[in-house]
From TrEMBL:
PROSITE patterns: UPF0057. The lineage of its organism: Bacteria, Pseudomonadati, Pseudomonadota, Gammaproteobacteria, Thiohalorhabdales. Its main location: membrane. It is found in: Membrane. It comes from Thiohalorhabdus denitrificans. Keywords: Membrane, Transmembrane, Transmembrane helix. The chain crosses the membrane at residues 12-30, 36-59. Belongs to the UPF0057 (PMP3) family. This is Uncharacterized membrane protein YqaE, homolog of Blt101, UPF0057 family. PANTHER family: HYDROPHOBIC PROTEIN RCI2 LOW TEMPERATURE AND SALT RESPONSIVE PROTEIN LTI6 -RELATED, UPF0057 MEMBRANE PROTEIN ZK632.10-RELATED. The keyword Cell wall biogenesis/degradation does not apply. GO terms for cellular component: membrane.
Length: 61
C-alpha cells in the first residue's frame, strides 16, 4: 500500500509542476524524449496547450 501512496503523491507533484511549468512536469514523467520537446513547442506557442499536453502525458501512465 505504501508504494501506491508514494506513486499517487508523485503524480500529484508532477501535475502541480505541469501547471506551473509544463515542460518540467513532462520531463519528470518521460525524460528528454519526444513528448518533452513537443511540450516545449506547445508551451512556446501558448501556455494553455502546454499545460493540457503535460497533464495528458502524466495522466495516461
Amino acid at each position: 500500500m505504501e508504494a501506491r501512496e508514494d506513486s499517487i503523491a508523485m503524480d500529484i507533484l508532477r501535475i502541480i509542476a505541469a501547471v506551473l511549468l509544463p515542460p518540467l512536469g513532462v520531463f519528470l514523467q518521460v525524460g528528454l524524449k519526444g513528448a518533452f520537446w513537443l511540450n516545449i513547442l506547445l508551451t512556446l506557442l501558448g501556455f494553455i496547450p502546454g499545460i493540457i499536453h503535460a497533464v495528458w502525458v502524466i495522466a495516461r501512465r
